[in-house]
Amino acid sequence: MTEALVALLVLLPVIVWWQMATRAREQAAEYVHRACQDADVQWLDSTVIFHRWEWVKDSRAKRYLRRTYLFEYCDDGISRRQGFVAMRGMELEWVGLGPTLVGNHS
Is residue 105 pLDDT above 60, yes or no? Predict the structure, then answer.
């Protein structure tokens, strides 16, 4: 019984973290989809790929986790370009399409 409880206590945070990461990725994909539609570019492969996460401070010195995902898009019908989306928790920080940033730049 004790071993099962220990295993549960170890696995539970991993499962919660995995679910939160999956939801953040899905939310990032929704933001990318909208940004590509708004910019009139084609989102290629309809996927975002995890790039990195980092602890950053906001303007009030409060720390938060930023997740960055990469994606590819096409703006001329030929070339593949790489964009990125930065998420603050489940909220959009920005979407980068080439030199253009869309979103909250704080």
Answer: no
